[in-house]
Predict the structure.
Amino acid sequence: MHGLLILIPLSVDMRAFDEGWPDFLEEAEQMPGLIRESATQIDRCLFGHNFLSRLYCFYFPDQPTLEAALLSPPGEKAGNILHEITRGNLILFSAEIKEDSLDHIQSLPSA
């Protein structure tokens, strides 16, 4: 699985961001191949220096599907809206995502 990760720094005007986010989602949720999405609002930093307010992830089955989604008309519109509501102040990357459940991990034979 591959994710499109959107990191929103603390320096973004969150009022303007929140006003434009529904418009972004309307387009982003139409991207072909999108499996699911997640939103994380950071409430405190437990260690280190935090510079982020929020983290969003849009999940796709693989990297080619993610790339095609970004180049689709809804993907391009979503990108333009995202750039507008953050004034270009964001971090955007793709990443391979691996997940496992605790039940599955505990069911594996001990080494």
User: Anything to note?
Assistant: The domain at 2-100 is CATH 3.30.70.100 (Alpha-Beta Plaits). Residues 67 and 94 are 9 Å apart (CA to CA). The radius of gyration is 16 Å.
